[in-house]
Amino acid sequence: MEHRFVKESRCYKTARIFPTDVNNHNTLFGGKLMAYIDDIASITASKHARKSVVTASTDSVDFLLPIRPTDSVCLESIVTWTGRSSMEVFVKVITEDLRTGIRAIAATAFLTFVALDENRRPVLVPEIVPETAEELRLHETATQRADMRRHRREESKKFADFLQMSFPWE
């Protein structure tokens, strides 16, 4: 089986926070950050698989600190684990106060992507090879997250079967 090192698909995205990016609390809209996260994670997954990818799930987004207009935000994205056709991608969000230079982890996220062939069918992806302590820790804990994802997906399917599809005006 082919393999790739984490560093081969690592991506970064840096952005300034503008007044149009903030909510009524004068902090970055959560949805704006989530769009940044999905964007950078999809690039990382595509670079790892060298195929088209689709977001299978946003497993978690943990907002740890508010992001303010005086901050820049830097997202770092890596593949932490691979299955047959799926990849877990971790995104770390680092803020930097542009006046003081103080940095902090503002959010973390885990997403799952599936690699697709030209017919939009799942295709095998290379195994991931972690090297740094951070990469190794994320890789070692990935099977536990994968188990939680499988369980949550099963529960979501059961719940979806229960939900109604008619609109109130029908």
Automatic annotation (TrEMBL):
One biological process term in Gene Ontology: fatty acid catabolic process
InterPro entries cross-referenced by the UniProt entry: Cytosol_ACT (IPR040170), HOTDOG_ACOT (IPR033120), HotDog_dom_sf (IPR029069), Thioestr_dom (IPR006683)
Residues that span the membrane, as ranges: none
Domain HotDog ACOT-type: 7-119
Record Pfam families: 4HBT (PF03061)
Cellular component terms (Gene Ontology): cytosol
PROSITE patterns associated with the record: HOTDOG_ACOT
Annotated GO MF terms: long-chain fatty acyl-CoA hydrolase activity
Keyword entries, A-Z: Hydrolase
Entries under PANTHER family matching the protein: ACYL COENZYME A THIOESTER HYDROLASE, CYTOSOLIC ACYL COENZYME A THIOESTER HYDROLASE
Family: Belongs to the acyl coenzyme A hydrolase family.
Protein name: Acyl-CoA thioester hydrolase YkhA
Lineage: Bacteria, Bacillati, Bacillota, Bacilli, Bacillales
